[in-house]
Amino acid sequence: MAKKTDLIPLSVPNLIGHEIKYVVDAMKSGWISAGECIRKFEKTIATYIKIENAVACQSGTAALHLALLALGVQNNDEVVISTISFIASVNPIKYVGAHPVFIDCDDSLCMDAEKLEDFIKEKCFFDGKILINKLTSRRIKAVLVVYIFGNVPNLEKILDLSKKYNFKIIEDAAEALGTYYKEGSLKGMFIGAIGDVGIFSFNANKIITTSSGGIVVSKDEKIMSKAKLLSMQSKDSSIYFIHNNIGYNYQMTNLQAAIGLAQFENLEKFIKIKNDNYKLYEEQGVKLLSFNPNIRSNKWMYSFLTSKRDEIIQHLKEHSIESRPIWKPMHLQKSYQESFCYKIEKALFYWKQIVNLPCSTNLTSENVKKTSKLVTAF
Ligand SMILES: Cc1ncc(COP(=O)(O)O)c(C=O)c1O
Description:
By secondary structure, the chain is an alpha/beta fold. Helix content is 35%, strand content 17%. The longest helix is centred in the last third of the chain and has 17 residues, at 267-283.
């Protein structure tokens, strides 16, 4: 067995920039909770994805909670989501008293837009204003699109359906900062800034990190000001402590934002490294799942298919290489076994076959070659 220091981790932060300097500067200023780095970080992310405003918060999960609340998703509404996602995409639907409806993924690993249309046509009723699930009699308020590993579904189709059937689009772009369309009808648009409201995560395993953190983004100023208010205890008057609504203590701290500002300076460099290492794995004979050719993807995480998922993960572990299966589908998780599901097939195949390989931006070419050799020889 290799020594712990030889471990090749799955996805770890790469703190090669001004992180320490910016955090120390923020500490010296005394502003460790609120502070100007937060506003600067919000503006930086917003400008990057070509919108006006963003609301930085404690985590991607908190960002999703705020996004749902700001969009007006309410008790007893339904939100359609692919069963292949991390559970943090689904739990906030429950936080607001709404219900997830699980549908299948397609070969992008994201929501199957064709099946979304079939679900609407077969199982729903549209009265010209509201889309209703015929079986549950609940309103379908929104579709929550998750960009798995930095890839995209057939978003053009989902956008068309949202116009036709009057539902909102929430983008869970937790894993996809930096992914944008370079071709097609969405050319030039950044993931996260296309639907009604979007979120990113800055958890330590993401392409850039703030240790823990997230951000809500939207072109709609009303949604943004609602999200901001909710993230700061719904304080309508800071002098007289007037709170007209239930709020949350979700605002990002100044120290987190300071890390984020330093990380952002290397974002494009990190995306290039992700793309270069993806290419290197392929050159070494590992057949990775592909990304939509119409996007410049951040290629956050690499996956390949194998009928020996658990054996390979164990084999790599014995050589001190971290790998993992994709998440157990959400409709099979204990809390969601009673939820409404529609024609889930592909998700089960991918769940049993996918292995994710090391993808950190400080991965060396020797790391990639060593991992590839073990995988291809297995
Ligand atoms: C798809 C997806 N959604 C939501 C989240 C939640 O983000 P966070 O961990 O920052 O709460 C994550 C990652 O952690 C994620 O991968």
